[in-house]
Inverse folding.
């Protein structure tokens, strides 16, 4: 069975699931324990809708088979069957999956042993997502619609001030830990720093919090210099490279495919052979986004997506060179960040830059896994001028990444490298004059 002590998952980025997989196991154990204590808890309507779809063999036999096979295709050995903390089994059939989903719907994401399980649904689907049948099922439009309804219901729970989703907000700990050598309430706006939970009435209110004095703590890099590109998000650089108009984004290596990333929009051909800068947000990051340039809004496009699809080659099809064994991503979608820029829920904001050397560019907000809401502020309509550092919109609960897409021929001297953490509004690049 191999070494079962403190398995550290070094490729987990963003902190949405802990690097120590034991913490995820404990999280699942706690869910199973609550299910055992309340076995007759009625299903929410959105859970019933998914159950009815799965069990409708007459009209959806493929889904009935697929939701069995996605669990059958998980290897019947550690670490996919038993968990290393020896407190129980993992979820291995769709009925337990539905019960777990139902329990999560009314449970805010918690810290487990000082570590964060910020992808509660993803923690349940880690292994099924990596199977061939899971890859197929989570791309099914009917399945995706039911899962979308579940995530929307969860989002409403996290926003509802009457549901006590703020119960996990504890001053000086976890979500309200004091960052950057200062008190949490000195860095962020808090409704009432002397009140319980610092006055946040819901989990979503904390998640979408604002900086207290953004001009001081996150000043805009050279605001009147049109050639300077600033960080649109508080994030870590993931990848930056040229991109083709059409490419096989679903294959190993996950090359960017601009036509797919831009949802085959009429403006997509203008980015042929362009360049992509991608950076991901961590769980504790600031989740609002700002304009990276001075310019004029050309177009805003909201793109529906598939929240639980990961690259096939980051699932059980990924074979580790050292062991020869399957090496699926235990934080499903983490290693698929380039892939999901073409399949996940996202918002496209096309901006005509004031600097003619940039011209048309596109900011893409990408929701990962649980994130099904990429909200662009309504005021940003076609023809409206936007300044560098102006707030564009925000993510609501869930993982997130983003891209800046530039046209062919735009020359940029980047001041950041892959792996660098960038503060919101800081300088990430300077355009070289043509």
């Amino acid at each position: 069975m191999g070494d079962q002590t403190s398995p550290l998952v070094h490729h987990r980025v963003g902190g949405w699931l802990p690097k120590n997989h034991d913490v995820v196991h404990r999280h699942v154990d706690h869910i199973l324990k609550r299910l055992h204590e309340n076995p007759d808890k009625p299903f929410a309507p959105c859970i019933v809708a998914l159950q009815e779809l799965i069990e409708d063999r007459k009209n959806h036999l493929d889904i009935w088979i697929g939701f069995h096979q996605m669990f059958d295709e998980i290897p019947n050995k550690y670490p996919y069957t038993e968990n290393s903390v020896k407190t129980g089994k993992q979820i291995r059939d769709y009925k337990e999956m539905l019960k777990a989903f139902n329990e999560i719907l009314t449970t805010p994401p918690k810290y487990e042993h000082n570590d964060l399980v910020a992808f509660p649904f993803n923690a349940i689907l880690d292994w099924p997502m990596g199977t061939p049948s899971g890859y197929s099922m989570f791309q099914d439009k009917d399945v995706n619609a039911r899962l979308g309804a579940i995530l929307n219901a969860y989002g409403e729970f996290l926003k509802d001030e009457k549901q006590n989703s703020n119960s996990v907000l504890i001053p000086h700990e976890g979500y309200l830990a004091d960052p950057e050598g200062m008190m949490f309430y000195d860095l962020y706006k808090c409704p009432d720093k002397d009140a319980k939970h610092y006055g946040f009435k819901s989990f979503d209110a904390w998640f979408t919090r604002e900086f207290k004095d953004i001009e001081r703590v996150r000043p805009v890099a050279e605001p009147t210099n049109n050639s300077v590109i600033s960080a649109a998000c508080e994030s870590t650089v993931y990848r930056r490279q040229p991109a083709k108009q059409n490419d096989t984004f679903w294959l190993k290596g996950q090359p960017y495919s601009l036509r797919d990333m831009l949802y085959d929009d009429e403006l997509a051909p203008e980015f042929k052979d362009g360049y992509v800068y991608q950076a991901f947000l961590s769980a504790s990051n600031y989740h609002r986004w700002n304009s990276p340039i001075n310019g004029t809004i050309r177009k805003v496009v909201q793109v529906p997506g598939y929240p639980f699809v990961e690259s096939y080659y980051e699932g059980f099809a990924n074979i580790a060179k050292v062991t020869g064994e399957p090496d699926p991503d235990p934080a499903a979608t983490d290693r698929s960040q380039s892939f999901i820029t073409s399949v996940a829920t996202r918002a496209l904001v096309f901006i005509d830059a004031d600097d003619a050397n940039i011209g048309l560019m596109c900011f893409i907000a990408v929701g990962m896994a649980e994130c099904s809401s990429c909200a662009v502020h309504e005021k940003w309509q076609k023809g409206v001028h936007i300044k560098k550092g102006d707030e564009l919109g925000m993510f609501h609960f869930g993982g997130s990444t983003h891209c800046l897409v530039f046209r062919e021929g735009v020359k940029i001297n980047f001041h950041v490298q892959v792996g660098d953490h960038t503060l919101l509004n800081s300088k990430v690049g300077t355009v070289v004059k043509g």
About this structure: The longest helix spans residues 141-159. The longest strand covers residues 295-303.
